[in-house]
Amino acid sequence: MLSYASLASLATLLLPAVSAYGTGFTGQKVVSGYFPSYQQSPADVPYNLYTHLDYFVFTTTSSPTSISQAGISDSVITDFVTRAHAAGITTSYVVGGWTGSQYFSTHVSTATSRATFARTLVSVMQQYNFDGIDIDWEYPGQQGEGNNVVSPNDSANFLLFLQTLRSVAGVNARLSISINVAGMVGADGNTLTDLSGFAAVLDYVTTMSYDITGTWSGFTGSNSPLSAACAPPSNPLSIATGISYLQGAGFAANHILVGMPAYSYSYYVQGPLTQRTCPDGTKSSLYQYATVGSTCGTYIGNGPQFLYRDIYNSGYFTSQSGYRRVLDQSSQTWILWNPTTLSFIPTDSPGTYYYKARQFFQRRLAGTNMFDTSGDTSDGRLVRAIRQGLKIDPTTNVPTLRKREIVREHLERRRRSAIPTI
Ligand SMILES: *[C@@H]1O[C@H](CO)[C@@H](O)[C@H](O)[C@H]1NC(C)=O
Fold this sequence. Notes:
- The protein is globular and about 60 Å long.
- A hairpin with a 6-residue loop joins strand 2 (52-60) and strand 3 (67-68).
- It is built from 11 helices and 16 strands.
- The protein is of the alpha/beta class.
- The protein folds into 2 domains: 28-260 and 347-408, TIM Barrel, CATH 3.20.20.80; 266-343, Chitinase A, domain 3 (Roll), CATH 3.10.50.
């Protein structure tokens, strides 16, 4: 039988894990987005459509005593935080990103530099009145942009750093990280299967379920497929695999945010766009290779990157634009294809976002994190569809999307084949 003293010490042992979540973890649905300070004005963000925003981005420097504002003035940062708080939402700042992760490995490598770097990050949080810190290290133990310091000890040191950061920042700071959709690697280069230590100190984790297929891939496909059931076997990643990875590694569903892109890569594809039957039984013409005579079209080159707002505002979803559209079932991605210009744009829409968010609701996930706020239309068509999918609008006064539009997309989807679930 346990003595009172041993029960008390057991309670002390348990306490840090239990109290790791402060007010940063709300337990409510999260509709988050990244604010790209380099291409959007704080005045143009529809704050009331989000529950949280991540200011993007501060970058690492060669010293753990500083991070860089990457050329953005104090007044922009302050304006953004003030507006977010006036709208009643929380905001974190992101440190890292694709071009800003160069020195994480160095700063987390010793106990001394971990403590210094943690104090630096917390002082920046306090200086601008942010509610939290989001670490976007691309990637621990793996090269990203090309000139990052990388060590096999990165992920182990990263965990030690996050524990230090939690103790310096306190329980009420909202601490989050984003993780490559393929997972985080350990010292042996293999994907880590146990991230429970990370889960114990973080409020939220975002699976970066975008850039899964792009203009570097050598074939066409979805930027952010719901399922990869129809994708080439060399490209098995998807929103579904990203979520399953995090849950399998020890993150509770209600701490997981799904990364959603508000931008698309485009390609040039020579028709005719016929459909093939996928291993999951759905039909698809999404995946094209640069081989003449491939079954459903031929990928002949890369086009420009599009923001969703530009695709929508240019009318590419309407037949008058010259684009035809077809919904790819297993990825839940629209294909817009213009037979004259051969422009081929796999893209999301309010309907696919609604459908994806409804599945996140059913899996009891925390919510979504959209990259980024500038890619949506100024009236927030994508983010409003997410809110509806997560069923959070009945309790708010946010105007909902016209039902008719969602229903029309659903009918179009039903006509084609059964709706896949993840
Ligand atoms: C990794 O950590 C171990 C144990 O602390 C240490 O001996 C080793 O030198 C480190 N490796 C690198 C590349 O820093």
